[in-house]
Specification:
The structure holds two protein chains of two kinds. Chain A has ten helices and ten strands. In chain A, the strands form two sheets. Chain A has a six-stranded mixed beta sheet with strand order 6-7-8-3-9-10, sandwiched between helices. In chain A, about 35% of the residues lie in helices and about 25% in strands. The radius of gyration of chain A is 17 Å and the shape is globular. In chain A, strand 4 and strand 5 form a beta hairpin. By secondary structure, chain A is α/β, with parallel strands linked by helices. By secondary structure, chain B is mainly alpha-helical. Chain B has a single domain, classed as ABC transporter involved in vitamin B12 uptake, BtuC. Chain B is about 70% helix and about 5% strand. The longest helix of chain B has 30 residues. Classes of the chains: A alpha/beta, B mainly alpha. Chains A and B meet through helix 2 and helix 3 of A and helix 6 and helix 7 of B.
């Protein structure tokens, strides 16, 4: 069963259609990636799913229910969390306050405390800097914080927008290890990435997006050997 | 009598009122970058409501402290309602509009509130009944009255309470998160409309108490009293750095002291050409100086490390 189902999703900014009717499904418990070049409409798609852009209600189904255009704070309550492009940590809040905001919708104080400890064990670097303001962290640490913060809401569906952007290779590796670990715990993930190889290697399914349309989709292992994908996104000539 | 010390005491009293009112400006500015020019009128409404309640109870056998307290307890919810209503009716529909639109609306709201007050409470200055016995203490040659002590203590308590709320509670952290980045705050599950409404309500509650304090301090309330007081508190917020809570408190206290010292010494300094009735000039001299020399204010908002 698909936890997230996009049916002919269209998103327009002003008069310009950035997403021109795409179909996409994310099965429960799986890690699915959406790859493509800059400006293909990947971030717009994620923003639409998270409720940040107006779309037709039926175009997005989550857990079987139409959610298109539902406001973000309501979706968080229903178990959907987005780690936005550029991380979006609250720079003037401390690391711990950022994590607390991740758990804003929860009232089970004891469980939140346990999850906080878990976030710190997942990212020991954050524990060292818990009372430092988030603006002083490095890019990689901010990405850890953004992911840790999203996990604090105990999401059923995690949307990740370009988690590798602007990070050093070692840090990218660390972030992807964490994403895999989270997926293993049973969290369903939709991952948007420009780093196509890395994304396909960790995913079970992949979708390729070009100028607002899905041009290719299938099991990630098939896409990895697909000549068109290899030529266009993996930097290999056929 | 020591004029310097006396003016410091008077300035502290006035300054702590400015500080409490300035907090209302700065909180709203911090969260939606709107200068809510109607905030001074909220303070005025607080004073007016308290006047009505205190006048009604003045003849009874209740102890004066309880009567004033009843005034506060009536003024606070009325002002909270006014604050909530103005956000809901006037500002929320303009959330995405160019910044000039809500600003002009704020001026409109301020005029409306003044005229509502005029209709309800008449155009005359309303004298508070003198129910509080004049108690005063001698400190190093200057005099501090019981009312002054009460005003300073109440203000400090409210400032400490607000600071604890903003920095120690989940709601307060959510307010700061919303002020930094409302979109991301929404992604945390924070209903930013509620946070914004809450900010207006808290600011209005502080304003209500400030209104009662001003009313009982000067012993008079008037439907136009909010505009000058509001402008001064706004100047205090700018002096401290608009959007910054500690700045509003510091700015308020400093402005009160500058004003009191200015009023105390202007006669001597100008050979009695100008008298203490020029007191009001000082707030605006300070405002102009800040805008020219340090537009971000003393503790200016650190825009640099915004996420």
């Amino acid at each position: 069963m698909n936890l997230l189902e996009l049916t002919h999703l269209e998103v327009a900014y002003g008069g310009i259609k950035a997403v021109k009717g795409i179909d996409l499904g994310v099965p429960k418990g799986e890690l699915v990636c959406l790859i493509g070049a800059n400006g293909a409409g990947k971030t717009t798609t994620l923003k639409a799913i998270a409720g940040m852009l107006p779309v037709a209600p039926e175009a997005i189904r989550y857990n079987g229910a139409p959610i298109g255009g539902t406001r973000p704070f309501e979706l968080v309550r229903r178990g959907l969390a987005l780690v936005p492009e550029g991380r979006g940590v609250f720079g003037q809040l401390t690391v711990e306050e950022n994590l607390a905001m991740g758990a804003y919708v929860r009232s089970d104080a004891a469980a939140v405390k346990a999850d906080l400890a878990r976030a710190y064990s997942l990212f020991p670097r954050l524990a060292e800097r818990r009372s430092q303001s988030a603006g002083t962290l490095s890019g990689g640490e901010q990405q850890m914080l953004a992911i840790g913060r999203a996990l604090m809401s105990r999401p059923k569906l995690l949307l990740l927008d370009e988690p590798s952007m602007g990070l050093a290779p070692l840090m990218v590796q660390k972030i992807f290890e964490t994403i895999l670990a989270v997926a293993k715990e049973g969290v369903t993930i939709l991952l948007v990435e420009q780093n196509a190889r890395l994304a396909l290697e960790v995913s079970s399914r992949g979708y390729v997006m070009e100028t607002g349309l899905i041009t290719l989709s299938g099991p990630a292992c098939d896409l990895l050997v697909d000549p068109k994908v290899r030529a266009a996104y993996l930097g290999e000539a056929d | 009598m020591d004029i310097f010390l006396q003016q410091i005491i008077n300035g502290l009293t006035l300054g702590s009122v400015y500080a409490v009112v300035a907090l209302g400006y700065t909180m709203v500015y911090g969260i939606i970058q709107l200068i809510n020019f109607a905030h001074g009128e909220v303070v005025m409404i607080g004073a007016m409501v308290a006047f009505s309640v205190i006048t009604a109870l003045a003849g009874t056998a209740l102890p004066p402290v309880l009567i004033v307290l009843a005034g506060v307890l009536a003024a606070v919810p009325v002002c909270m309602l006014v604050g909530y209503a103005m956000e809901r009716i006037a500002y929320r529909p303009l959330r995405g509009a160019p910044r000039l639109a809500p600003l002009i609306t704020a001026i409109g709201i301020s005029i409306i509130l003044q005229h509502v007050a005029l209709l309800v409470w008449s155009r005359n200055p309303l004298a508070f009944p003198q129910i509080i016995p004049l108690v005063s203490f001698d400190v190093g040659g200057a005099i501090i009255t019981g009312v002054q002590i009460a005003i300073i203590l109440t203000s400090v308590l409210m400032m400490v309470g607000l600071t604890l709320m903003v920095y120690r509670t989940k709601l307060g952290i959510a307010m700061r998160a919303t002020s930094q980045n409302p979109q991301i705050a929404g992604l945390m599950g924070i209903d930013i409309d509620r946070i914004i409404a809450f900010t207006f309500i808290v600011g209005a509650a502080l304003g209500a108490v400030a209104g009662v304090m001003v009313g009982t301090y000067y012993g008079v309330a008037h439907y136009t009293m909010g505009s000058l007081l509001g402008l001064k508190a706004f100047s205090a917020a700018v002096l401290g750095g608009i959007g910054n809570l500690a700045g509003a408190m510091l700015g308020g206290i400093l402005l009160g002291i500058v004003e009191a010292l200015g009023a105390g010494y202007i006669g001597d300094l100008t050979n009695n050409v100008f008298g203490s009735n020029y007191q009001d000039v000082f707030a605006f001299l300070v405002l102009i100086a800040v805008l020219v020399f340090r537009p971000s204010g003393l503790l200016g908002e650190r825009v640099g490390d915004r996420a």
